Amino acid sequence: MALRTPGRVPLLLLGLLTTGLARLPLPASTPRGFWALPENLTVVEGATAELRCGVSAPGSAVQWAKDGLLLGPDPRIPSFPRYRLEGDPDRGEFHLHIEACDLSDDAEYECQVGRSETGPELVSPRVILTILVPPKVLQLTPEAGSTVTWVAGQEYVVSCVSGDAKPAPDITFIQSGQTISDISANVNVGSQEKLFTTEATARVTPQSSDNGKLLVCEGSSPALDTPIRVSVTMNVLFPPGPPVIEWPGLDEGHVRAGQSLELLCVSRGGNPPATLQWLKNGQPVSTAWGTEHAEAVARSMLVMIVRPEDHGARLSCEAHNSVSTGIQERGVTLQVTFPPSAITILGSASQSENKNVTLSCITKSSRPRVLLRWWLGWRQLLPTEDMVMDGLHGGHISMSNLTFLVRREDNGLTLTCEAFSEAFTKETFKKSLILNVKYPAQKLWIEGPPEGQRLRAGTRVRLVCLAIGGNPDPSLTWFKDSRAVTEPRPPQEPRRVQLGSLEKSGSTFSRELVLITGPSDNQAKFTCKAGQLSASTQLVVQFPPTNVTILANASALRPGDALNLTCVSVSSNPPVNLSWDKEGERLESVAIPPRSAPFKGSAAARSVLLRMSSRDHGHRVTCRAHSTELRETMSAFYRLNVLYPPEFLGEQVLVVTAVEQGEALLPVSVSANPAPEAFNWTFRGYRLSPAGGPRHRILSGGALQLWNVTRADDGLYQLHCQNSEGTAEALVRLDVHYAPTIRVLQDPTEVNIGGSVDIVCTVDANPILPGMFNWERLGGEEEDHSLDDMEKMSKGSTGRLRIHHAKLDQAGAYQCIVDNGVAPPARGLVRLVVRFAPQVEHPTPLTKVAAAGDSTSSATLHCRARGVPNIVFTWTKNGVALDLQDPRYTEHTYHQGMVHSSLLTIANVSAAQDYALFTCTATNPLGSDRTNIQLVSISRPDPPTGLKVMSMTPYSMGLEWKPGFDGGLPQRFQIRYEALGTPGFLYMDVLPPQATTFTLTGLQPSTRYRVWLLASNALGDSGLMDKGSQISVTTPGLDQPSGEPDYQLPTEQPTRPSGLPLMPVLFAAGGLLLLSNISCVGGFLWQRRLRRLAEGISEKTEAGSEEDRVRNEYEDSQWTGGQDTQSSMVSTTDVEPYYHSMKDFSPQLPPTLEEVSYPRGLTHLEEDMAFPGHLYDEVERLNDPSGAWGPLYDEVPMGLCDPCWPEETYEDTRGIYDQVAGDFDPMETDSLPFELRGHLV
Question: Boundaries of each Ig-like domain copy (predicted)?
Fold first, then answer.
């Protein structure tokens, strides 16, 4: 709440509403009033202000008001952090203290005392607190702190604006320390209330004296202790002063030629300083100058060497700057003094004694002219004539002529021409000559070895020629046999003659001749001459032959030619002996009379006669010249150049071996002179291009290089070499080695059992090695791969594996491996087919087939035989041939390798007609075999046989058995066992029902058990009478090792044995239920029978194409069929066999096609399978138990599950052996009605 004092609101109400009022503890008798009143106060912004207020009012509240706004009695004044009340309230001191005053504190203040019991309110007079705000900045135009460039005498406008201030500041301008009076100033409102700015403008006319000085804007205010200033520096441009040339010395313009003249040109003042340049005759000669800005002085120094041609030249210095209105110039003209640059004496100073000498002395131009005088030694000679002529550069030329008589004593004196002038008193100009007076020498002689002494060639000899007196110095000249001796210096030969220089010792002169003696020095006369004087000496030199030369009577030699060689020793001292040899072999020679020899020596000659052959080409014939006295021999040789046609050398390679796809080099070792001009290669009548081809090139030496060699390149290559003398030919065989390739391998190879046969393997290979054929037997790991009973033979490119007394176990795949050392080895597969008479399988005692004889069922009789070649089956019933034209009988025949099957299907079986003994006869060209099959009625199963223990542990035993005849119905197996000494039997059902192995668990260690095996079908069980279906065994103890089973199929085992014999009850109940349901579903099943059989046959045939192939395949198998005969034969041997490694091949003989069952769930395959009609129209029984037949061959065991090729060894559907059609797992046992079931036993 704001309380305005002008309204005089009673302060008592304010005291009642406000808490915390300050009360004065003064005596009640003290009169109320102010004992200290506030006064007007002025402070600078930021300073501290204090308004005093002293009152005598006990018990009253005291507070301050600012422009009528009450600040409150709280001494801290919370609303104004910078305000507080100072003083002792008990003494009545309520001073208002303000920290850091700013413009907001500029106001009217009054001190108020509230009403109390002792009196009314009190209000002090209003006082004003004035806040002074100094200007913070001055803004100068042009910018403060900068340098402004002005031209002297021109007027410029300058403005200066202050920042916010209170009161408005005063602005003045100061130019070079002088205040400018012509100023206009305006005061403007500032950016805030109560603030002002001042803007001042001045007109300035700078002068040259203002250059470099300050133009200052100064702002003053009561709030400032000192005025604030901003300034600019004035750069005043003005022209320089006139140039001044400072001439050295007093005589301005007078200089001496050759003097280094240094002239300084100075120009003072000017901004910028003056630019100076020197001119000579109006042409610039120097534009370099320097400035001193502090003194505003420009200086330029001209340095020049004064020359005579500078006489009369005008030198000037020019000065100006950017503000000059014109060029200022100062000049001086040169007056050059120069002496003569040269003095020349014309004429010769050499003369014979007692004759006149005439000379002339001429000077070059000089200023001023010079005088000439002559001197001979220290004696002055008088000239004959003196002359003066005008010269160059304003100078003069002086000339003086002299003639005088010379004497011997004047020899060597100095003759001088001297030039002088008053202008050149400190200098002398002279030209001198040495006077040469000529006179002859007085004596001449030679010092050297005595005459007649024998010197060996190569000896160093020193001859010295000496002479006395003579001028000029005698030129001692050496002569050899009247020819001057010179000093030849060929760069590549040693120096044999050294001719010394003329040496002088007093009046004696000498010249040395040093030489290395040679043949030409023998009896030579060496003479030294000096003018008309001469002296001589003679040398005797011994030397070997200077040259040994061999002369031939013919240059072109051919085999059979006779060559006469003559050896000539041109000259030697003493004479030499000659001898001949050829490649170290001494030759007989004939001497030839000598002839005259040079160098006054002796000559010799001998000749030899040789008969040439091609072997002599390149040989050296040597002539040796031997000096006995000198003990030295010189030799010369003649190299025989025999021209002959090409000849192949003994090291010529005639057979070159290369590897196919590699490189081959057919080298050439041939000798010919001249070298063969061409090497022509031909192969099989075709010439190879000398320029090369895609796979060959002929090298520079004639060798033939081939690459990417093939076996087609094998053969003889004819080389034809030719030169100008003839031709030669050679045959080089290229033997190309290549990896073997099998060309002939008869597959299959057939042999009758017990016979002999050769498996022939013919290859194309190079090289053909004796042991390169190897054979391997392929097949399963359990087969015997040994070839010990077979004979391996090879001859040339054909290898044979001979088999004696062929046996069936030798049939199968064989591999021919050929390795001749060139990778890779060749491998080929061949099948050995052992032909043998039919062998019908006799699965005794299971030789029965059961079927219902109510004329509604069908039965299928299976007959399978092995044999090669194909087998033909015939059937008889009770010894009478079966009429297959009868529609009730249908036969299907299958041929798969050496396994052949015949399926006889009897439709509508009648007990009266068909319960009989059927005989199947298998026949091929090698013989026949037969088996009997009894068709009987359905019955209980026969007991299983062969029950045995396969493994044993303390708590379990593994059992295996062979099932018996199932009676024509699906059978199951049950185990009955007892522990001896323990009453009661335990029963265990075998699961799955058709399993022939089972692990009996829940046993006790070290306990003897008796075990029975029962077989049952819907008609009952087999009983326990057969001894083959029971065993007694004792389980091992815990400390005994347990035996592991050799072979065990996974079986499902109960967790614990049953305590009650429930299985017979269950089987009986199941049989009754089955018999009651047959009549209900029989009609329906009969309608579906034919469709299901067709589906099964399609699946069976498709699956048969994918089964494994068996060995000893007979490739002549065939398929035949016809509706008339109601029989068919199926074979898959038309497929092309695929050869591959058979090391891991382990075939197993699967069940035949007719034994395969067809599950119900495969009916959907009917749409996808393209099979040509129904192979079986009426098939009564298809669900034969797996494994009903024993193994056909001991070496080809049959398993309980479908055999298959090892996946890791063979993946292709095309095998070496054709598949046996229709080898599938049996289907579920209940897939046919009871009356349609029947088994092949």
Answer: 25-124, 135-233, 242-333, 340-434, 440-540, 544-635, 740-821, 838-939
Q: Quote the longest CA-to-CA distance of the chain.
A: 193
Which residues share a beta bridge with 346?
A: 360
Q: Where are the beta strands (DSSP E) in 1101-1159?
A: 1120-1122, 1127-1130
Q: Amino acid identity, residue 902?
A: S
Q: What is the pLDDT of residue 1138?
A: 30
Three-class DSSP category at 509: strand
Express each pLDDT in 861-876 by its tens digit: 999 999 999 999 999 9
> The tokens of 432 are what?
């001198």
Beta bridge partners of 721: 679, 728
What is residue 248's predicted lDDT score, i.e. its pLDDT? 84
* Tokens, residue 466: 């000496």
**3 state DSSP class of 1208:** coil
Q: Kindly state the helix (H) or strand (E) to which residue 1100 belongs, with its residue range.
A: helix 1063-1104
Give residue 494's pLDDT: 66
Question: What is the mean predicted confidence (pLDDT) over 1220-1237?
Answer: 37
Residue 181: the pLDDT is: 86
CB 899 within 8 A of CB 1220: yes
As a whole number of angstroms, the distance between CA 665 and CA 667 comes to 6
Task: Say how many Å lie between the first and final Cα of the chain, rounded.
Answer: 130
Burial 111-139 (b: 16+ CB within 10 A, else e): bbbbbbebeebbebebbebbbbbbbeebe
* C-beta separation of 338 from 423 below 8 A: no
Higher pLDDT, 1203 or 288: 288
Q: How many CB atoms lie within 10 A of CB 396?
A: 17
Closest CA to 869 of 1171, 582, 1113: 1113
CA 114/CA 122 separation, integer angstroms? 7
Report the b/e string of 42-61 with b at 16+ CB within 10 A. ebbbeeebebbbbbbbbbbb
CB atoms within 10 A of CB 207: 14
pTM above 0.90, yes or no: no
Length of the chain: 1241
DSSP 266-288: EEE-TBTTPEEEEEETTEEEE--
Helices (H) and strands (E) in the chain, counts: 3, 94
Nearest to 1021, CA basis, from 968, 1062, 974, 1061: 974
3-state SS of 775-790 is EEECCCCCCCCCCCCE
Report yes or no: 654 and 733 within 8 Å, Cβ to Cβ.
yes
Report CA-CA distances (Å) from 1159 to 67, 1173, 1183, 1227: 119, 19, 9, 5
Using alpha carbons only, give the angle 230, 233, 236 rounded to the nearest 5 degrees: 145
Residue 285: per-residue pLDDT:
87
The residues facing 793 across adjacent strands are: 800
Nearest-angstrom CA–CA distance, 53 and 62: 9
Q: Which residues on neighbouring strands pair with residue 1199, listed in sequence order?
A: none
Residue-wise pLDDT tens digits, 1033-1054: 999 998 876 654 433 333 333 3
Between these two residues, 58 and 1017, which has the higher pLDDT value? 1017
> Percentage of the chain with pLDDT > 70?
80
Show contacts of 1098-1101: CB within 8 Å, 24+ apart: 1098/1165, 1098/1166, 1098/1169, 1098/1171, 1099/1158, 1099/1162, 1099/1165, 1099/1169, 1099/1224, 1100/1153, 1100/1156, 1100/1158, 1100/1221, 1100/1222, 1100/1224, 1101/1130, 1101/1153, 1101/1171, 1101/1175, 1101/1221, 1101/1222
How far is Cα 1162 from Cα 1227, in angstroms, rounded to an integer? 11
